[in-house]
Structures are given as C-alpha cells and as structure tokens.
Amino acid sequence: MKKNCSTTTNDPQFLLLGDSHAGAIGRAAKETGVPFVGGPMGAGREFTAPFVDWDAEKLTFRSSYADEMYQSFLKELNASSLLDVKLPLLCTFGFALHFYATSENWEIYREADHTLSQSFLESQLFHDLICVMAQGALDFYRSLIEKDINVTAVLPPQKVPETSEPNVFRAAQSVLIAEANRMGLKALDVRQGTVGRDGLQLDDFSQENDPIHGNVAFGQVLLDAFTSQRTTNHVTA
Description:
Layout: E1 15-18, H1 22-32, E2 37-40, E3 52-55, E4 58-61, H2 64-76, E5 89-91, H3 97-100, H4 118-121, H5 124-133, H6 135-146, E6 151-154, H7 166-183, E7 186-188, H8 216-236
Parallel strand pairs: 1-2, 1-5, 5-6, 6-7
Antiparallel strand pairs: 3-4
Helix pairs in contact: 1-8, 5-7
Protein name: GDSL-like Lipase/Acylhydrolase family protein
C-alpha cells in the first residue's frame, strides 16, 4: 500500500489518520504545499471492528503496522499521546462503505426476487446491523469526543465496486451520518459537486482504473472543505 504520509514540517495544519482513502487528501496537501502530519495506516476493513485500546490516556492500535505509523506521527509532533496533539484531526476510519455494502453480507435478508426491500434498508434492524459492523470506528470517535479532541470524519468517494450494492452503500452511509450527528461528530461531506445525477462519483474526482478511491482532485475538494469548516467554526466560536 502506498503510504502518502507526511514528512516533518515546522507548522503542520492538521493530523491525518485513516485508511487508504486518506491518501488522496495527503497527496492534495503535498501538491498545494499545505503542511500536515499523518497518512493511511491500513485498509478500510481494519478500522471497522474494534481496532484501538485505551490505557488511561494512552491510545494503542491493535494492528502493529497501524500503531507503528501512529507512533511515528506522534514523534513528528513531539507528542506522547493523541491528547497532547493540539492540531485538528482529520480521519477516514469507519467510512469504507463499500465494505459494509458487500453483496454476500446481505443474502439472508433478501426478498424472494433476491432484492433488498427499501423498508429493510430503512429499518431499525438494518441500522443496528451497520452500527455493529462499524462498532470499532464509532467507539473510536465517541472516545475522542469525550476527551474533547477536535476530530472530523470524512465521507468516502461515492464509488461502489461490483462486489457491493449501491442501495446498501447509500443506506449504510445514512446510518453513519445519523450516528455522527447523534454523537456530535463533524462529518466532511462533499457529495455536492463531486457526484452525478445517479449519486455516484464523477470521473473528474475518481482515481483512474480504481473501483473505490478518489483522486487528487477529490482530495483537494476535501481539503478545501476542511479548511472552510475550520475557518467557519473559528469565526463562529
């Protein structure tokens, strides 16, 4: 996996933690000269089930690779824990929606015609199933908010591979947005302007020959939205 991580900077603007979807943000920041620390730390599916442990105020990632990357980011920031980091945190964990939408996950819930009914996709059962699948990420964000860490989650590119189903992708996204709103988690949503009438990612914002990732242009849109959000919040505060 291409890391697309930071290099040491004197004045980083944010800490970027996430799965492979963080790569486009990191590349956009590097191309435009926006200093940051962080980058991808693993594949999306690794950050759905519980993936961190807290020991008092110390955070440890269960994946040795992810924890090695995390510790290197802290070292760049001269911090001993995430609580010491005063930068805003931008994070893609838990929003690899194509993983939840994998067709084989939903076989037992299909109708006689092999489809998934809209009533099921809008049901409390579906909501609860997605929350269980995303439990690790939701618990991670909840813990950060409880510790007053300034964190923003990122919605993924609206790209659905052949192994997944668009209606489940959209429904799962609605569930996670609702849960983010419930816990007070800021979510970076740039669908307006980056998707077509079908709700799917436009080619201009898609990584070529890649079924799930956005490109640098998409990363730049996210970066611009994040900067605008931070500026707005600062003025409001």
